[in-house]
C-alpha cells in the first residue's frame, strides 16, 4: 500500500488519471503551474505607492477572482458538512428521547463525541487550515485519520452499537467515501470504500451470531458496499474532469491577466486620450493623456468621476449623450470645445467606439471615447504635408541657385554700362529681388535634411544671455530698468543639446517677431529660461502684442506663410525644423486673459549634462 501511495504522489510527476483533481491545485502539488500563476499575479498587481492611476477596464475585474485554492474551499465544505451532521446526530437523539425512544448510552456518547470533534475542526482555524491534498493522500496522516478515518470508525461503531430496531446508520458511511473520492487519489478512495464495505460485512457477521439470517445480512452489506465503490469511482471521475477544466481556466486566467497588463501599459503610454464612459456620464477609466486633456493645467483626477462635475466639460457630456442616443458616431469624429474658466478654450477631436455590432439588439452601456487636441491633429497633418514639401523645395532651391547666380552676374554687367537713371532704377530692383531670392534659397537649404554631427552639450544660460546682449545691441534696444527686453535667467548652468549657431537663429527670430508686434513699453518683451525637471529646459519668449487671430494660429509654422508683405514666411518654419533636428519642440500658446504678456512662443530642449561648467556671462542690469 505504501508503495502505491508513493507512486501516486504528484510531487514526482504531473497529475494523471489516478489522482484527485484537487491534487493539481493544493499544497504545491503542481508547483510549475502555481509558479507561473504567481508570476502572473505579481505582474498584474499594481504598486499602491505609484502616483499614476492605472487604466482599468470597467467590464472585467480579474483581480476579483478568489485567490483561495479550490481544494481548500471544498475541504472546508466537507468540514462544515461533518459539523452539521454531528449536530444532526445529537439533535436526532434528543428528539427521539422526547418521543420515548431512548438510545443506548454508548450510542449517545459516541454521537456527542463525534459532534464535538466535527464542530471543533470546523470552528478552529488551526484545524481548518491543516488539510492539504498531500496529507489526505496518506492513510496514516493525522488529517486523514481525523476526518475520513474518524468518520469510518464513528459511523461503523454507531451501526454496530445501535439495536436492530433503532436508527440505521449505514447511509452515513457515504460521507467519508464521497470525501475520499473527491479529495484523495483513486487508490486511497477505493481503499476507503473497501474499508466501509468490510465494516458492513463484519457487522453483518456479528448480527448472524445473534441469530439473524446470514444470507439476507450479507446481501444487504454487499449491495451497500457496491454502492460505496460506485460513489468513489464516479466522484473521482467527475473530480478529474473538473480538474482539467480548472487547470485550463487557470491557464486562461493567467494569460488574460498578462494580456490585460499589456493592454494597460499600451493605453497608458498612448498619446491619444482614452476614456470609458457609461450612459450616465460616469467615467469608468481614463488614461493619463485623457486626464491631461481634460484639465487646463496638470492632470484631472483619476477615474471614476462624473463628466457633469465640471462646467467646462458640458459640450463633451452633450456629445456622449448624443452618441448613446444615436447609437452611432462619425468615423472621423467630431470637434468638442472645452471652455475652461480663466484659461484659453481647448478644442478636442472626439472619436467614439461601441462594443456592439450595428445589428445587435443589445443595449450598449459603455462607449470608448478617444480624444486628442485638435491642434495636434492639425499639426500632424501639416507635418506630413510639409515633409513632402520640404523635400521638393530643397530640390527646387538647389536647381535655382545656378540660374540665379547667372542673373545676378548679368545684371551687374549691365549696370556698368547703364547711364539712364530709369535703367539704373530697374537694375537696382533686379539686384534687390535677386538678393531676396538668394536669402529664400539659403533658408530652404538650411532646413534640408542632413546628418546631425555629434554635439557637445552647451550651457543654455550662458548662450541665451550672450545672444540677448548681441540682439539688443543690433536692434538698438537700451538695457536697464526701462528696457523693452526683460530676461529671467537661472543662476545655475543648464546644459542642452543644440548647435550654438542654430540656437542663435531660433532665438533671434523669436525676439524679432516679439519686438515687432510688442507695444514698445518697458518689459513688453520677456524672455525666460527654466529647467523642467531633469529631462528638459524651457526657453520662453512673451510679448504684450495683440493676440494672434484664431484663423492665423494654425498656419504659424507653415512655410511661405506670412502676415507681412515683404516677409518670406520661412522664419518660424525654419525654427521648427531646426528644433526637430535636435529633439526639441517649438510651439505657441495664448496665456490667460488676466496676464499682460499673452503671446508666448516656447522651445522645449533636451537637457544634458555639461562636461565643464561654463562661466556665466554678465548681461547687464536686467540679467
Structural write-up:
This protein has 623 residues and is α+β, with helices and mostly antiparallel strands. Helices cover 51% and strands 12% of the residues. It has helices at residues 2-7, 31-44, 70-98, 105-123, 125-128, 133-136, 142-161, 174-183, 186-209, 214-269, 288-293, 314-326, 374-417, 421-446, 460-474, 500-517, 571-581; strands at residues 273-278, 282-286, 305-306, 334-338, 346-354, 366-373, 458-459, 485-488, 495-496, 525-532, 536-543, 585-590, 599-606. The strands form three sheets. Strands 3-2-1-6-5-4 form a six-stranded antiparallel sheet. A five-stranded mixed sheet has the order 8-10-11-13-12, covered by helices on one side. It has a two-stranded antiparallel ribbon with strand order 7-9. Strand 12 (585-590) and strand 13 (599-606) form a beta hairpin. Helix 4 runs antiparallel to helix 7 (142-161), helix 8 packs parallel to helix 10 and helix 9 (186-209) runs antiparallel to helix 10.
Could you say which structural class the secondary elements and strand pairing correspond to? Answer: alpha+beta
Stretches with pLDDT under 50, minimum 5 residues:
1-68, 613-623
Strand order of the largest sheet: 3-2-1-6-5-4
Largest sheet: number of strands, sense, barrel closure: 6 strands, antiparallel
Estimate percent helicity: 40-55%
Tell me the overall shape: rod-shaped
Cα-to-Cα separation, first versus last residue: 93 Å
Report the mean per-residue pLDDT as an integer.
77
Strand content: 5-15%
Computed Rg: 43 Å
Oligomer: single chain
By DSSP, the count of extended strands is: 13
Number of helices: 17
Amino acid at each position: 500500500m505504501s508503495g502505491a501511495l508513493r507512486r501516486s504522489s504528484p510531487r514526482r510527476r504531473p497529475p494523471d488519471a489516478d489522482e484527485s483533481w484537487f491534487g493539481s491545485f493544493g499544497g504545491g502539488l503542481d508547483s510549475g503551474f502555481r509558479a507561473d500563476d504567481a508570476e502572473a499575479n505579481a505582474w498584474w498587481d499594481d504598486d499602491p505607492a505609484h502616483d499614476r492611476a492605472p487604466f482599468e477596464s470597467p467590464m472585467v475585474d480579474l483581480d476579483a477572482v478568489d485567490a483561495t485554492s479550490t481544494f481548500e474551499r471544498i475541504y472546508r465544505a466537507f468540514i462544515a458538512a461533518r459539523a452539521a451532521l454531528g449536530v444532526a446526530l445529537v439533535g436526532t437523539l434528543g428528539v427521539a428521547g422526547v418521543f420515548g425512544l431512548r438510545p443506548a448510552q454508548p450510542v449517545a456518547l459516541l454521537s456527542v463525541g463525534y459532534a464535538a470533534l466535527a464542530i471543533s475542526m470546523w470552528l478552529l482555524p488551526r484545524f481548518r487550515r491543516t488539510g492539504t491534498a498531500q496529507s489526505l493522500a496518506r492513510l496514516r496522516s493525522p488529517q486523514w485519520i481525523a476526518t475520513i478515518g474518524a468518520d469510518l470508525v464513528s459511523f461503523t461503531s454507531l451501526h454496530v452499537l445501535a439495536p436492530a430496531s433503532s436508527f440505521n446508520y449505514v447511509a452515513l458511511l457515504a460521507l467519508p467515501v464521497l470525501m475520499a473520492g473527491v479529495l484523495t487519489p483513486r487508490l486511497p478512495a477505493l481503499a476507503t470504500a473497501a474499508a466501509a464495505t468490510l465494516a458492513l460485512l463484519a457487522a453483518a457477521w456479528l448480527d448472524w451470531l445473534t441469530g439473524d439470517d446470514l444470507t439476507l445480512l450479507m446481501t444487504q452489506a454487499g449491495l451497500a458496499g457496491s454502492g460505496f465503490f460506485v460513489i468513489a469511482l464516479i466522484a473521482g471521475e467527475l473530480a478529474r474532469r473538473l480538474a482539467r477544466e480548472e487547470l485550463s481556466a487557470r491557464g486562461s486566467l493567467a494569460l488574460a491577466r498578462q494580456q490585460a497588463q499589456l493592454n494597460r501599459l499600451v493605453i497608458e503610454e498612448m498619446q491619444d486620450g482614452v476614456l470609458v464612459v457609461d450612459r450616465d456620464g460616469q467615467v469608468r477609466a481614463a488614461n493619463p493623456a485623457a486626464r491631461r486633456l481634460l484639465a487646463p493645467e496638470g492632470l484631472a483626477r483619476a477615474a471614476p468621476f462624473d463628466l457633469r462635475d465640471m462646467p467646462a466639460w458640458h459640450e463633451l457630456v452633450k456629445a456622449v449623450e448624443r452618441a448613446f442616443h444615436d447609437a452611432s458616431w462619425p468615423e472621423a469624429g467630431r470637434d468638442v470645445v472645452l471652455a475652461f474658466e480663466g484659461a484659453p478654450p481647448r478644442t478636442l477631436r472626439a472619436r467614439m467606439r461601441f462594443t456592439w455590432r450595428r445589428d445587435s439588439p443589445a443595449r450598449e452601456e459603455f462607449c470608448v471615447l478617444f480624444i486628442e487636441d485638435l491642434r495636434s491633429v492639425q499639426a500632424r497633418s501639416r507635418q506630413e504635408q510639409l515633409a513632402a514639401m520640404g523635400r521638393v523645395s530643397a530640390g527646387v532651391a538647389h536647381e535655382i541657385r545656378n540660374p540665379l547666380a547667372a542673373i545676378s552676374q548679368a545684371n551687374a554687367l549691365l549696370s556698368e554700362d547703364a547711364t539712364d537713371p530709369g535703367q539704373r532704377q530697374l537694375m537696382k530692383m533686379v539686384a534687390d529681388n535677386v538678393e531676396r531670392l538668394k536669402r529664400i534659397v539659403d533658408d530652404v537649404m538650411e532646413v534640408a535634411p542632413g546628418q546631425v554631427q555629434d554635439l557637445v552639450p552647451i550651457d543654455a544660460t550662458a548662450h541665451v544671455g550672450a545672444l540677448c546682449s548681441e540682439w539688443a545691441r543690433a536692434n538698438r534696444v537700451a538695457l536697464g530698468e526701462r528696457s523693452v527686453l526683460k530676461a529671467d535667467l537661472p543662476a545655475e548652468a543648464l546644459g542642452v543639446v543644440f548647435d550654438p549657431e542654430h540656437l542663435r537663429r531660433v532665438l533671434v527670430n523669436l525676439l524679432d517677431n516679439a519686438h515687432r508686434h510688442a507695444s514698445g513699453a518697458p518689459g513688453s518683451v520677456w524672455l525666460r529660461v527654466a529647467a523642467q525637471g531633469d529631462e528638459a529646459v524651457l526657453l520662453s519668449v512673451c510679448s504684450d502684442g495683440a493676440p494672434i487671430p484664431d484663423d492665423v494660429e494654425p498656419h504659424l509654422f507653415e512655410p511661405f506663410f506670412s502676415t507681412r508683405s515683404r516677409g518670406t514666411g520661412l522664419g518660424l518654419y525654419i525654427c521648427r525644423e531646426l528644433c526637430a533636428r535636435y529633439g526639441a519642440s517649438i510651439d505657441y500658446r495664448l496665456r490667460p486673459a488676466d496676464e499682460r504678456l499673452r503671446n508666448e512662443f516656447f522651445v522645449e530642449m533636451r537637457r544634458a549634462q555639461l562636461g565643464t561648467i561654463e562661466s556665466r556671462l554678465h548681461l547687464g542690469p536686467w540679467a
